[in-house]
Amino acid sequence: MAPVTLAAANVQIEHDKARNLAKFVEMIDEAAAKGVDVLVLPEIGLQGYADFAFGLGDKGAAAQKQYYFRESEPVPGPATEALRVKAAEHGMFIQLGLAERAAHGNVILNSTALIGPDGVVGVYRKTHNTFEFPYFNAGRSTPVFDLPFGRAASLICYDLAFPELLRVFALQGATLALMSTAWPMKGHDPADDYHGFAMDLCAQANAFFNQMWLVVSNHCEKGAYSAGLDYWGHSQIVDPFGKVVAMLTDEEGVVTHTADLDAATLSSRTEGFFGLNLLQDRRPDLYGPIVSTDLYAPTDRPAAAPPGSVN
Q1: How many CA atoms lie within 13 A of 78 on its CB side?
Q2: Mind listing the pLDDT tens digit for each residue in 148-158?
């Protein structure tokens, strides 16, 4: 297969849709000059991530909800159409993170739209977003998308901490995962930041365990919001061996890597890790508890003893 150029944007995002979109257009042109085939943009990059996360900010819950109700967009919508024009101009695929307004009901979703020259290829809604409710409803599906250079899947931020999700994508034939995130730091020292370390660890582990490519696009603002939150940045590309092959740390920009995606995936599954294919060697007959809810709410509890009986 011909080489494919993957790219991830490291971006300072604002709570200003027009300015963010204008910046994305510039980054798309920059990526096109580097021959990029697929570019990933950050989580809710269109509107900006919320002040409410982790108890930060002083706007209040109502103001946060109102902001997203005002600024959310349907998919397809104005922003996806603007990026479709750029995708068609450059023959590129672009993953946009946005607050999506559902077609029906009073619902906002934390979503990614994968956009190609002919329009929206598919939409993914963040499934692991416990701390974001009731601002964003959770997604309920795990779609994969066929691109000219392979089958891709999308994920968002906290999803990366759940290896089951990446495995589901891999079992559906995805060999490329596109991650949009707003991953913050725990403190302000990149040299010793556990939250940032955790993102990098999860990215490498998920790529390794599923022997698939992973492209991560993050925010890189510093001193954001009233609490002075720093984002981790470190937008990166991880190969199917679990190795980071390209990364930006704090600076804004587009990081790229060119490779024969299929050849690298095949190599990782036939010679990279002792010649073992980690998908082929699974034992799903032993993994029932992974999908069982009985561990949390058992259905086989002993019946209550009759009143007055002796236990």
Answers
A1: 11
A2: 999 999 999 99
